[in-house]
Amino acid sequence: MKKNIIKNPLIAAARSENLDKAVRSNVSAVILMEVKLSYLIKEEFKKNNDNKPIFIHFDLLRGLSNDVEAVRFIKDNINPKGIVSTKSTVLNAAKKRGLMTIQRIFLIDSKSLKNSIASIIENDPDMVEVMPALCGEIVNKLKKEINKPIILGGLIDKEEQIIEGLRCGADAISFSKEALWNMKIDKEIIQ
Fold first, then answer.
1. pLDDT score, position 137
2. CB-based contacts of 73: which residues, under 8 Å, 6+ apart?
3. Would you say residue 41 has pLDDT above 80?
4. Torsions phi, psi of 134, nearest 5?
5. Count of alpha carbons within 13 Å of 138, Cβ hemisphere only?
């Protein structure tokens, strides 16, 4: 997955109703938001899961609680590429079961930045998603403290915002705007 991000730093934030479109798009991976457990066991999801790396946003998953047993069930029965969560117990349980992890953090002030850095160091996720994406200049501060790929997500609705986030040093950008999923990234523009 990390190699996919280097080739293409676009990640779709999709829902079950537009997952097919996200999987067929130019993005390197998909974060599946607000999904029901009943959808994850359907053949439609399994086909999509075979075609592109899908990360289930565990905190928004309906039909299971956010606990270790739920992570075990998802790994054994669904087997996505990984999960996204803000919760340490979920992230650690997923890592123990061989799922990739993306820790989502929300930055609202300097204290939340400090607490997030401590949490990232403790949880050791594979990647970190920073919300909102429009705080790109914080990327360099985070990269000095943690050695993880940084994904910026939230409030993205223009190509310029994606390019700016990448110029700020983000490794990838996640966004739900379908019109941008097939955007081509010119490496020279972001340097």
1. 78
2. 64
3. yes
4. -80, 10
5. 23
- Report the mean per-residue pLDDT for the chain: 93
The secondary structure of 149-179 as a DSSP string is -EEEESS--SHHHHHHHHHTT-SEEEE--GG
CA distance 157 to 95: 32
Residues 6+ apart with CB under 8 A from 83: 55, 56, 57, 58, 71, 74, 90, 91, 94, 99, 100, 101, 102
The reported pTM is 0.91
160 within 8 A of 180, measured Cβ to Cβ: no
Query: Residue 10's beta-bridge partner residues?
Result: 173
DSSP 42: S
pLDDT greater than 60 at residue 26: yes
Peptide bond into 53 cis (omega under 30): no
How many alpha carbons fall within 13 Å on the CB side of residue 140?
A: 3
The first and second tokens of residue 137, run together, are 């200049």
Convert the pLDDT of each residue in 70-98 to its tens digit.
999 999 999 999 999 999 999 999 999 99
Burial of residue 27 (CB within 10 Å: 0-12, 13-18, 19+) is buried
Structure tokens at 55: 């990360």
- CA pair distance 170, 13, nearest whole angstrom: 16
